[in-house]
């Protein structure tokens, strides 16, 4: 095992002068930010402000044009494609608006897929715990099409947690859900931070969702322009309106 400095272990994700250009568009413009381990951070900003690009670069789904990204003590820029893919599968959990479950697999197979892709078996006690948290114990043999949208997203959250990832990245995970179901999914992400010390980064348009985080980052024009800590819904809406 690699020895890490105390600083590296306290830092979950670090972006250092990250710029991402698509042709003439600077989707991210010199972004530097540190996500502390076990924190829950929301990212807000107008359409086109760079939220998804930020999440993709921070999670190793895309490589920055310039700058560096570290997950724990690992510099993603030093990893080749195979190692980067493995890091994403083993150390990061993803939740997307569109659930992205495999239609032909049942709920348990979907949840355990990241482990099986990595050639490992689920730890039965952890699988039970994750399934209990997301409330799908009586749905394990159902296929996604037999579930409600909220149940599908809860299965996707379970799939994101099954590898005990260091960081969970969620891109508009409540965008397709009704408000009550959205609250359940947010509670699961909050629990991931509070119960198991995972670092959660949530991209959202919803001030109610953002206010469940420890801190809200505001992006505009590819830059972080503000942070609101211990946010109330009113504080988030107020900052949003003046962006
Ligand atoms: N693959 C791409 N090719 C070209 N331009 C891109 C690409 N991805 C993003 N962009 C551009 O980069 C900018 C930021 O896009 P991004 O999707 O990160 O914003 P966003 O804040 O997530 O927007 P939204 O809230 O609408 O999803 C936009 O101008 C967008 O058009």
Automatic annotation (TrEMBL):
ABC transporter domain ranges (all copies): 13-240
UniProt-listed InterPro entries: AAA+_ATPase, ABC_transporter-like_ATP-bd, ABC_transporter-like_CS, ABC_transpr_LolD-like, MacB-like_ATP-bd, P-loop_NTPase
GO molecular function, one term: ATP binding
Positions of transmembrane segments: none
Transport listed as a keyword: yes
GO CC terms: membrane protein complex; plasma membrane
Domain of life: Bacteria
Keywords: ATP-binding, Nucleotide-binding, Transport
Keyword Ubl conjugation belongs to the record: no
Protein's recorded name: ABC transporter ATP-binding protein
Species of origin: Actinomadura verrucosospora
Taxonomic lineage: Bacteria, Bacillati, Actinomycetota, Actinomycetes, Streptosporangiales
């Amino acid at each position: 095992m690699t020895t890490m400095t105390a600083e590296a272990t306290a830092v979950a994700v670090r972006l250092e002068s990250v710029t991402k250009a698509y042709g003439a568009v600077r989707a991210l413009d010199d972004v530097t930010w540190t996500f502390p381990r076990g924190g829950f951070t929301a990212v807000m900003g107008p359409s086109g402000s760079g939220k998804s690009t930020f999440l993709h670069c921070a999670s190793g789904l895309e490589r920055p044009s310039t700058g560096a990204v570290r997950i724990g003590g690992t510099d993603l820029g030093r990893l080749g494609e195979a190692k980067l893919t493995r890091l994403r599968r083993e150390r990061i959990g993803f939740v997307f608006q569109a659930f992205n479950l495999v239609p032909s697999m049942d709920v348990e197979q979907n949840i355990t897929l990241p482990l099986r892709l990595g050639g490992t078996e689920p730890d039965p006690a952890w699988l039970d715990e994750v399934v209990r948290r997301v409330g799908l114990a009586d749905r394990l043999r159902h296929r996604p099409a037999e579930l409600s949208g909220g149940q599908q997203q809860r299965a996707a959250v379970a799939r994101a947690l099954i590898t005990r990832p260091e960081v969970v990245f969620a891109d508009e995970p409540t965008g397709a859900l009704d408000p009550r179901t959205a609250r359940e999914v947010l509670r699961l992400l909050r629990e991931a931070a509070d119960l198991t010390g995972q670092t959660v980064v949530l991209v959202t348009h919803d001030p109610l969702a953002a206010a469940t985080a420890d801190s809200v980052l505001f992006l505009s024009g590819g830059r972080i322009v503000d942070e609101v800590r211990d946010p109330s819904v009113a504080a988030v809406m107020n900052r949003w309106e003046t962006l």
